[in-house]
Amino acid sequence: MRKIKVNLGVRSYNILIGRGILNNLSRQLQKLNLGTDAYIITNAWLKNKYGVILRKALSRGGFNAHFKIVLDSEKSKSLETASLVISDLARFDNKKKVFIIAFGGGVIGDLSGFVASVYKRGVSYVQVPTTLLAQVDSSIGGKTAVDLVLGKNLVGAFYQPRLVFAEINFLKSLNKKQLASGLAEVIKYAIIKDRKLFNFLENKYQAVLKGDEKALESIVSACSSIKAGIVSKDELEVLGLRTILNFGHTIGHAIEAASGYKGYNHGQAVALGMVVAVEISRKLGLINLNIAKRIEKLIKLYGLPVKLKGVTINKIIDAHYHDKKFVGKENKFVLITGVGSPKIVRNVKLDLIKEAVRKVV
């Protein structure tokens, strides 16, 4: 079991990564002294497949388990769903020492973290991510949120988990589309921070796409280490360091919102957003055509889209104005000067953004 620490003083926590480590979960929870009653937010499919196993793993440490089922959809990241969950949690939390377990992918993790941050002004929660996207990215760093119709993640808080527990064996249940969605975030990390990881993805794509456990464990560890290091230095994104993690997300989130969160999942939208960010970088003279082609080739290699259907440029542009990185009329894009070299650029001209978006539409 690999251990990576997110250093945040008294709010520090570990990311534990390994294969066949679920039976160790209760021991790790006992060390944290969170309480005795686990309120587990998950979806119906995960509960049916892993609910009995998870309950047994928790009971070994004397923990009670209560499952709360929400829809396996971006629609679950809403104020309405959060309100329903909080009401159910309040009914469950009667003479109990309760803590929350987010058992699922990015949607479950974001919703659970948001609920944990506002219920009783904050209760402890643990991330047990079951998708590659959640294991490499969304479960780490304490960004919690729900969506509004106008845009993604507009209501939320920074609220750190007490533990991230990444069981690689959960990834066996992912289909090709789910695996590819997570790989979009992996590619993001490689582009902004890790040339070695980029080369690994180019050379070992067959093993990765087959779901080779050793390859996936290496990927999860590499990305977790990168994010833990960045979050430890810039938790609240005030220094600009954490901003680079938004590479591909400005237009990616706009594509999700413009499409009504249908047709393109988060990873696919981020892949398209990365193509746009790379095109803006190229048009600004920050990278050459060869680098742009190499990145686009890698995105395609992992079955991710580089072209968009069914969404107009105008809808994407309208949606991108609701990006959280806008300050007044000033936009902020994460671009690159090379593989492993991010650059934050403000006030990118609208005509240039439209030209770059046109490349994927």
Task: Describe the protein.
The termini are far apart. The protein is α/β, with parallel strands linked by helices. The mean pLDDT is 95. Helix 6 packs across helix 9, helix 6 runs parallel beside helix 11 and helix 10 crosses helix 13. Helix 2 links the parallel strand 3 and strand 4. It has 14 helices and 11 strands. It has 2 domains: 172 residues, 3-Layer(aba) Sandwich (Rossmann fold), CATH 3.40.50; 185 residues, Dehydroquinate synthase-like - alpha domain (Dehydroquinate synthase-like, alpha domain, Up-down Bundle). The strands form 3 sheets. A 7-stranded mixed β-sheet has the order 1-2-9-6-5-3-4, with helices on both faces. Strands 7-8 form a two-stranded antiparallel ribbon. A two-stranded antiparallel sheet has the order 10-11.
Shape: globular
Q: What is the fold named in CATH at topology level of the largest domain?
A: Dehydroquinate synthase-like, alpha domain
Radius of gyration based on Cα positions: 20 Å
Mean pLDDT: 95
Instruction: State the total count of DSSP E strands.
Output: 11
- Give the end-to-end Cα distance, rounded to a whole number of Å: 43 Å
Q: Tell me the name of the CATH class of the largest domain.
A: Mainly Alpha
CATH architecture of the largest domain: Up-down Bundle
Question: What structural category arises from helix and sheet content?
Answer: alpha/beta
Percent in helix = 40-55%
Alpha plus pi helix count: 14
Structural domain count: 2
